Amino acid sequence: MIIFPAIDILDGQCVRLIQGDYNREKVYSNSPVDMAIQWEEKGAEFIHIVDLNGAKTGESINKKIIIDIANTVSVPVQVGGGIRSINTIKDYLENGVNRVIIGTAAINDQAFLQEAVERFGEKVVVSIDAKNGYVATDGWTDTSDVSALDLIKKLEEVGLKTIVYTDIAKDGMLQGPNLTEQQTINDATTMDVIASGGVTTKEDVENLRNLNMYGAIIGKALYDGKLEFEAIMGE
Predict the structure, then answer these.
(1) Catalytic-labelled residue, pool 129, 167, 171, 204
(2) Using alpha carbons only, how large is the chain's radius of gyration in Å?
(3) Fewer Cβ atoms within 10 A, N terminus or C terminus of the chain?
(4) What pLDDT, on a 0 to 100 scale, did the predictor assign at position 142?
């Protein structure tokens, strides 16, 4: 299982939000590039980056910083947050980013998703943020009437290979992942599933490994020192 340390960027700084609330942020570093270098030095195989400004507004104002990260570290990076056009995907992939993550746009614009997968294949990942099994959109500000399982079936049909599945009720709360939900999703699809939300302890990581998840994204627990990155690598 790949462990993805998360770098969330808001206004050029490395932050964490609690349950996606932009009014509940904590700044961890004013240099996301330095943070990425640190994770690589600690043994990260892949880095997960979120442009929080982009997720909220659809404008990729942190793109330069993200491309700097991609070209500074030697490990691959995947980027999400406000990626709503083919040109934005192309720009990232041509400038060192390994994979782009589409969120809200995958639900709202089926033609865009189809074109993205046809043109860029495995470089495209879809992020599904869900609460009680239903998909949340627009930076978690709205919950839709789309069930996560229904969406997953549609994504598989389009030819998608990888999803990020976040239980937003758990995210940033340091209460452990929703293992039942993650298992349900993983068992329901042949796509690679990256678990996100609430991963806090070595036991959480082990539990996700036992579910045969493709990957796990860890954020707040690493930044708050609840979990040592080196302690969960190479097990």
Answers:
(1) 129
(2) 16
(3) C
(4) 61
